[in-house]
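Review session, final week

We close the course with one last complete record, chosen because it touches almost every idea we covered. It is Dolichol-phosphate mannosyltransferase, a protein from Aquimarina intermedia with 243 residues. Go through it on your own first, then we will talk.
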Amino acid sequence: MVDALVIIPTFNEIENIERIIRNVFSLQRKFHILIVDDNSPDGTAALVRELQTEFTDQLFIEVREGKLGLGTAYILGFEWALARDYQYIFEMDADFSHNPNDLIRLYNACAKGSSSMVIGSRYVTGVNVVNWPMSRVLLSWLASKYVRLITGMNIHDTTAGFICYRREVLEHINLNKIQFVGYAFQIEMKFKAHLLHYKIKEIPVIFTDRTKGISKMSKGIISEAIFGVLTMKIKSLFNRYEI
């Protein structure tokens, strides 16, 4: 029985999707994959469906009507996983910014240790980022410092999106109360796990910026993270923040 599911949200990832799927399925440890595709016009979903004939009962796909946000894609994936028997649920990007080989390290840190949430961290041992301009590295690093200061979380990479959750964490978080749909979603999930007193561990990974396809980062996403975090913390101080 495979107990681990990797959730990969996609929008226009035709250049990366087959390679990332084959890489995950070539690992020594067995994982299942759920693709959550936002109706990519480039044919990403059609290619995944073709691959399903090769990877029967290993590869799954849910296609949504359009671009509805990263957070809602992961929530759909979490709910899909919780309706089944997966014990370890992963977030991972499709563009190889997250190395599939690190899935095993995250799995072992979660399954063989006492941690309930394991983060593949860019900043826990310095700055492990490849192919980003210095301005973007500084923005990301400073954003994590800001979030850490505001929330009080002892996490170096608060915006990381390479994560392994024990099933119990997702069962105890009210997914219907998640407020953010962009990259602030990543912060909010960590904050909720922190408020629930789950043990969170960071392990160092090397983050490599995509070489194929187009980044989905925008100014609106950054603004949501900056102002949303402050609102989230204030509400938690007055017991108005729902976990």
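Two points worth writing down before the exam:
The chain has a mean pLDDT of 93.
The longest helix spans residues 219-237.
Good luck, everyone.
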